[in-house]
Amino acid sequence: MQERASAAFTDTKPHYELLNGLRGVAAIMVIWYHIFEGFATGPIDQRFNHGYLAVDFFFILSGFVIGYAYDDRWGRMSIKDFFKRRLIRLHPMVIMGAALGAITFYIQGSQQWDGTPVSLSMLMFALLLNLFLIPTVPGSATEVRGNGEMYPLNGPSWTLFFEYIGNILYALFLRRLSTKALTILTASTAIGLAAYAVCNLSGYGHLGVGWSMADNNLLGGFLRLLFSFSIGLLMSRVFKPAQVRGVFWICSISIVVLLSIPYIGSGESPWMNGLYDSICVIIIFPLLVYLGASGKTTDKMSSGICKFLGDLSYPLYIVHYPFMYLFYNWLWSDNPEFSQTWPVIVALFFGNILLAYLCLKLYDEPVRKWLTKKFI
User: Residue 316: inside a domain, yes or no?
Assistant: First the structure.
């Protein structure tokens, strides 16, 4: 999800500027999804409901771009080189997100959601695990928030856990598959993902899974990764652009609508929402990636917008959630009226954008530049 939609190995290939922009749009929608999560008692009554599907869109983008950037480089690049490049691209912001999570948890009072105190030593141990993307088992002492997250200091880090698995599978296995074999894998995982969603194996009535090791959550995360990454990789192999005008706005509006639509059904028939999730992930999102890859920006302004959104998307995604924890703590402790929260929501939204931009320019880009110069 976090790969920039460009040729990471060399600058000779053109950038997919529109895909960069679309990834940024989806990242912004994730922020709003998490904001409205604080006002919901469950997935059914959340007003801004389907933002969790942005992860599947990110995984499709990742598979597409990695296939495009690396498939024809293996004669000149070793597996070790590939892993070094991916670590340099992804892990500096993993570290930043974990550090911000530890700081905000300490500011919150170093307590689990039920008020159980957490020692500083256990907080540091949880931070160490998050720094190395080692998942936390639900109910263990290092699961410091007490709500079952794999990464309790920065919940969205779970997607990086799966992103790394996708990269490992690509380097060791997926890139070696024939197009026919990759098509079979994609179709098989599509069936598995649809069955998981429609049969409500998550127990939540939706596909927002992968963030915990409890029950069937981890299985759902693997199905989401395997289908989305595989179809993205398959599309990169067989891609032939089409001529469509206004692609960025068509795709952006589609993403906004698809990710904000309310829960489908009343909750008594969870298969309905599962079917919606399946259609979005298996059919519509690949189509949007195809359209986005087909389109091109035609002026400096649109190119600048797409570049800004694309550059900001990963830092924004990975640093925003620690401050959501503080927001949730305030909401659930003080119980303000919904109308009274808007100044805080606006500050939270734009503050996270500013923070992500500062992290990008003052930390992520300089660190990656230094690491690339030293190790690549």
Answer: yes
Going by C-alpha positions, the residue among 10, 7, 22 that lies closest to residue 295 is: 22
d(CA 308, CA 357): 9
d(CA 19, CA 307): 10
**Packing angle, helices 54-70 and 247-260, rounded to 10:** 140
**Number of alpha carbons in the 13 Å side-chain half-sphere of residue 73:** 19
Q: Are 281 and 207 in contact (CB under 8 A)?
A: yes
> How many other C-beta atoms lie within 10 A of the C-beta of residue 169?
16
Question: What is the number of structural domains in the chain?
Answer: 1
pLDDT at 208: 96
Task: Find the Cα–Cα–Cα–Cα dihedral 103, 109, 112, 113, rounded to 10°.
Answer: -110
Structure tokens at 206: 């939706």
C-beta atoms surrounding 239 within 10 Å: 15
Tell me, yes or no, whether 5 lies in a domain. no
The residues with which 40 forms a beta bridge, in sequence order, are none
Sign of the alpha-carbon torsion through 249, 343, 55, 313: positive
Whether 63 and 229 have beta carbons less than 8 Å apart is answered as yes
Average pLDDT over residues 117-137: 97
- Alpha-carbon gap, residue 321 to 327, rounded angstroms: 9
Tell me which residue range forms the domain holding 107.
17-375
Give the integer Cα–Cα distance in Å for 85 and 77: 11
As a whole number of angstroms, the distance between CA 170 and CA 71 comes to 10
Is there a domain that residue 9 lies in? no
Closest CA to 33 of 298, 238, 301, 320: 320
Tokens of 142: 């290092």
Name the token pair of 120.
């500083």
| Cβ(292)–Cβ(235) below 8 Å | no
Residue-wise pLDDT tens digits, 53-100: 999 999 999 999 999 999 999 989 999 999 999 999 999 999 999 999
Q: 212 φ, ψ to 5°? A: -135, 160
Per the domain annotation, does 180 fall within a domain? Answer: yes
Provide the terminal-to-terminal Cα distance of the chain, rounded to the nearest Å: 22
Contacting residues for 345 by C-beta, under 8 A, at least 6 apart:
35
Question: CA 347, 350, 354, 356: dihedral to nearest 10 degrees?
Answer: 110
